[in-house]
Write a structure and sequence with these properties.
single chain, alpha+beta, Pnp Oxidase, Chain A, six-stranded antiparallel barrel, 4 helices, 31% strand, globular
Length: 156
């Protein structure tokens, strides 16, 4: 049985994750803007419209820069924000003093593997959520790409 939060109709774990995401988004938006550096990540808040509600949803996220291109990565392609971005194909990245609009598309496999390696190397704590390790072979990672989401962002 899934425990629900009184009156919300949502599982308690979903409500807790929503609250945690909102707190982290507020923290990111209060921090000085981090500059992008190749082969590294910066924290931003991705604002993505819901695919059915069209309401903006804010998600705290690490944006990875590899070979001059920005990537958003999810360890689970079924996460609501990743499903929304797949359908909507655009988002805004927010920082304390900026909002930038991007078009988002699935990264090609070669770029996705490079972005994933960078992400997992820099954010080691996140590695346990992925079905592979940063030092796995390209073939092993490629076999698992359908389970994760890697979006390339291009300025709109």
């Amino acid at each position: 049985m899934i425990e629900e939060t009184a009156g919300s109709g949502r599982p308690a774990a979903d409500v807790a994750a929503h609250v945690s995401n909102a707190q982290m988004a507020a923290k990111i938006l209060s921090m000085p803007d981090q500059p992008f550096r190749d082969e590294d990540y910066v924290l931003r808040v991705a604002e993505i419209r819901g695919r059915t509600s069209a309401r903006p949803i804010q998600v705290p996220i690490a944006v990875t820069l590899v070979s001059g291109h920005q990537y958003l990565i999810s360890p689970d392609s079924g996460r609501p924000w990743a499903r929304n971005l797949t359908v909507i194909g655009q988002c805004d990245l927010l920082a304390r003093s900026s909002r930038t609009h991007y078009l988002a598309s699935a990264a090609n496999p070669t770029a996705a593997i490079a972005a994933l390696r960078c992400y997992l190397t820099k954010l080691g704590w996140a590695a346990q959520q992925f079905p592979f390790a940063a030092d796995d072979s390209d073939e092993r990672i490629a076999e698992q790409l359908s389970k994760v989401a890697v979006f390339r962002l291009d300025p709109a």
